[in-house]
Amino acid sequence: MTSEWRGRPGRIGALTGAGISTDSGIPDFRGPRGVWTTDPIAELLSTYDNYLADPDLRVRSWQARRDNPAWGAEPNAAHKALAELADGGRAVTIITQNIDRLHQRAGSAPDRVIEIHGNMFDVVCVECEYATSMAATLERVAAGEPDPPCPDCGAVLKAGVIMFGQQLDRASLLKATLTAQTSDIFLAIGTSLQVEPAASMCAIAVEHGADLIIVNAEPTPYDSMATEVVREPIGVAVPALVADLLAAREDLTG
């Protein structure tokens, strides 16, 4: 497999999925031990219509948010490597499908991280403009409100994440698309590339001339488009790729 892409200058886009956070103790969704694999009911918690229609499901959802391992998770070597890539002088924009904010905590600039599926630390009302923090809402749950309603209009509250059946935020989708279109190298890390439109960023990047590098344990629908497919563990593979990219930059700049 050619490695010439490592020496290519220009912009780097990175699409990251649940697999990049498993080393931080956050399970993925579709893997052999994924959340939805081991507990099919959990997928219902992520479906917007079910969430709105079923108060019992919302109660379970608030409990799941309270117990989410992301509260105690720390960025791992892969998150830190992507931050180091930007610190090393490469223009890096991250499109993440994750809601854990570990990229920002690892040192990636918040304005260079596009949270295409939202984040778990905000809470919004489904009917009005009310918004607050997850921590504040979980305090209400702990105080005896198992399904806390909006304090302004009484409607349903939900996490600031995009659920199945919801449209993506247009501004975030536009930023992600522009990132894919303008990338010279596009990394897809720890994502099954089965959820659209996020996965289609790979095709957009390739169509606009980028080298696509996929780092994932399992095959993806986009492997045939890739310049290189890496199956090594993400916590090892991403720091190694970043080291190669930074070494190539040193060679280019002399």
UniProtKB/TrEMBL annotation:
Primary enzyme class: transferase
GO molecular function: histone deacetylase activity, NAD-dependent; metal ion binding; NAD+ binding
Active site per UniProt: H117
Keywords: Metal-binding, NAD, Transferase, Zinc
PROSITE patterns: SIRTUIN
Domain Deacetylase sirtuin-type residues, every copy: 1-248
Annotated positions binding Zn(2+): C125, C128, C150, C153
Domain of life the protein comes from: Bacteria
Stated name of the protein: protein acetyllysine N-acetyltransferase
